[in-house]
Amino acid sequence: MTFCVTGNRPQKFPFDYFSGASIQMTAYFACLKRVARECLAKGYDTFITGMARGVDLDFAIEIIKLKNTYRQYAGVKIIAAVPHRSQADRYDRASKKKYDFVMENAERAIVFSEEYTPDCFFVRNRFMVDESDLVVAFWNEKNEGGTAYTVNYARKQGKETNVISLYKMI
Hints:
Layout: E1 2-7, H1 23-41, E2 46-49, H2 55-69, E3 77-82, H3 93-105, E4 108-111, H4 120-131, E5 134-139, H5 145-156, E6 160-165
Helix pairs in contact: 1-2, 2-3, 4-5
């Protein structure tokens, strides 16, 4: 079974993503870890990440940690769904390091466009939903942007959707 994650980028979090070990960030990472464990315990064996800064990369790293720590999860496959080849070129140093780590640990990378195009992110998001049995979203609940699009598309496609409000971390 396959699942994917979608979520907001750091600038759209309802709290300061860059605040280090704040109560909100501690709660956020604890929630990522809990949801990742729940998905793997339910038998999901393939994970698709969109490789964006914030939720996508953070959740993928949790999956990698679980794969590397627990033998029963060693066979979990990670698919990196890259909207365009230069996606990480403008990432800050920490995000680029996360991106490279996830790419090194992915069993497969699918690049949807050699160059940025106005719809490459939507193509990537639809692929993630279409290929998944479950869509997990960490969302600020604003009906705008890529996360909202992906959640709405998943619901229209009748996909099981688990939405976690980022406001619960406050």
